[in-house]
Design a protein that fits this description.
Layout (H helix, E strand, L loop, with lengths): L1 H17 L1 H19 L3 H35 L5 H9 L1 E3 L7 H9 L3 E5 L5 E5 L1
Antiparallel strand pairs: 1-3, 2-3
Keywords: Coiled coil
């Protein structure tokens, strides 16, 4: 049984080494939950609520900014902005063949969306969330 535990421990170490950022995220989240459940005083809880509201607003604003950025990019390249609705609803859109493929780099460099050229279904520029 100790060899099974050792194998699992080694596997855990390998995973953590390969996934440092994710492991750090999970560890921090776990510590935060534990503190809130087991140690937080009323004053802490009040402060955490304020911090959570701030963080939520920040994330909402980032999301809005990305949509604005995409709208500006679509307008710059003469793409119908109705495709943004499709992108938001389906998480992916194929814009077809475009004359200017520099849109791919602009989307990848300035948004959290991923753009690439695909040969599937007749080819075209694909954008994914």
């Amino acid at each position: 049984m100790t060899t099974d535990k050792n194998k699992q421990t080694e596997a855990n170490k390998r995973w953590q080494e390969k996934n440092k950022e994710r492991a750090k995220y999970l560890s921090n989240r776990s510590r935060a939950r534990s503190f809130i459940r087991n140690m937080a005083a009323k004053e802490d809880i009040k402060e955490f609520r304020e911090l959570l509201d701030e963080r939520e607003n920040t994330l909402k604003n980032l999301s809005r900014k990305k949509v604005i950025d995409m709208k500006e990019i679509f307008e710059k390249y003469g793409i119908n902005i109705d495709w943004l609705d499709v992108l938001e609803e389906e998480g992916k859109v194929n814009l077809g063949n475009l004359d200017d493929l520099s849109i791919i780099d602009e989307i990848n460099d300035s948004t959290d969306y991923t753009a690439y050229f695909s040969n599937d279904f007749g080819g075209g520029v694909v954008i994914e969330k």
